[in-house]
Amino acid sequence: MWIWRPASARLPLLESGQAEGPFPSPQALISSLNPVRTVPGTARSGNRAVRSSRSSMALLTRRPIQWLLGLLLLFGAAPLITVAAGGRQEAGPASAGTPPAGGQGWKALERGRYQESIRLFAEATRRHPNDPMMWVGLALSERGLQQDQRAIRSLATAIERAPQMTQAHHLLARLHAERDEPGAAIGHYEEALGQDPNNVRLQSEYRQVRGAMREEQGFSRVAGRHVVVKFAEPSDQDRGSRLAAHLEEVCDAIARELGSVPATPVVALLHSHKSASEPVWAAGIFDGRIHVTRTQLDAGGSRFQTYLRHECTHALTHRLSQGRAPTWLDEGLAQYLERPVTERSEGLPVHGEEGPILLESLRGDFVGLPRAEAERKYADSLRAVQVMIARHGLSGVRRWLEAIAVSKDLAQAYQHVFHTGYPMVVTR
């Protein structure tokens, strides 16, 4: 089964470590938040519009400042800002004006040591309670441990210290959106856009959240432990309850296999008919929510169960990688997990071509491709994921997804988790 997804559903990641424009230096960002603090050198910042919402996240053209990547990429909310920095301003977290505990906290956060980074940032906030960056670091560390309520409080404190901190508003908006709290998300998107009105990514996310809120206006809901089902027709109450029970069971099973329980609910919409915007040959779409029609639910059966497993895998992959997993990994894993272990074939799919797979050939999304080419890419994606699981196990793939959320690119995340170079070619 092939699952087609719209471009707006993904936050892209550079897959080969290539730079595509600079981030602000930490000195420029910190000095802009705290005018009293002076930092050696000069920095100039402004908005950088991207070609489209599909453009890859901006990365440093010089040596990467990993603490800033950890800060911004954990939420997939990199600001599109151009900075012209004079002199050597790449000192990182230990640069002038950054509390020592804070510098160590950014390093721990980059490495995924969230308990350690929480301890360090908590110390930094006690010693420097008016430094908004320390509160943001604490929030990101808490988010890494799925402590969302604490992360929200820490980001709110950062905004109290620096009300015009665009990045904090953006992160908080993303977190509220993930928690299915669109009203709160929209408020912070509007605050961020008020300060950075030309930011294309902000505009795109804002439109998506507002569109979802309009679409769901007047919907009823059924909530389970880890899922929320929304529906428009009062007569669908029983269907909504039935779908919630199905989803809870399926998502629990997928989460157990991956070894990760989602901190935010998996949201599903029950539609009375098939979406007109869906490609004609696709079985479904994933835009952060699972879409199910009455016809699918009423028909039930193994095909519907496979569809739910596929879509739940997308939802959990999205959360583990913060939306930054490449399409081939996301789709390959969804195909691999869409069938229960007892029915899962370890053999190569019949549509796959024999021989090695060049991962570069799978780069980018599969949206808009001719059907034959898309089917080949989906099949090759499954083959590549099968090889990764054979080498590293599902737990290894999960740890790779978590590393992707905070790393510069796939290669860096792969090196960090598996202590070997990222393979350009995958073979059995």
Overview of this protein structure:
The protein is an alpha/beta fold and 428 residues long. It folds into three domains: 9-215, Tetratricopeptide repeat domain (Serine Threonine Protein Phosphatase 5, Tetratricopeptide repeat, Alpha Horseshoe); 217-321, Zincin-like (2-Layer Sandwich), CATH 3.30.2010.30; 327-426, no CATH class. Helices cover 50% and strands 8% of the residues. The protein contains 15 helices and eight strands. The strands form three sheets. The protein has a four-stranded mixed sheet with strand order 3-4-5-6. Strands 1-2 form a two-stranded antiparallel ribbon. Strands 7-8 form a two-stranded antiparallel sheet. Helix 10 links the parallel strand 4 and strand 5. The chain is globular, with a radius of gyration of 22 Å. The two termini are 23 Å apart. The relative contact order is 0.12.
What CATH architecture of the largest domain do you see?
Alpha Horseshoe
Largest sheet: 4 strands, mixed
Average pLDDT works out at 74
Order of helices and strands: HEHEHHHHHHHEEHEEHHHEHHE
CATH topology of the largest domain: Serine Threonine Protein Phosphatase 5, Tetratricopeptide repeat
Name the CATH superfamily assignment of the largest domain.
Tetratricopeptide repeat domain
Q: What would you call the structural class?
A: alpha/beta
Percentage of residues in DSSP E strands: 5-15%
* Number of beta-strand segments: 8
Morphology: globular
How many domains would you count in the coordinates? 3
Secondary structure: helix percent: 40-55%
Distance between the termini: 23 Å
Helical segment count: 15
CATH class of the largest domain: Mainly Alpha
Q: Which radius of gyration do the C-alpha atoms yield?
A: 22 Å
Strand arrangement within the widest β-sheet reads 3-4-5-6
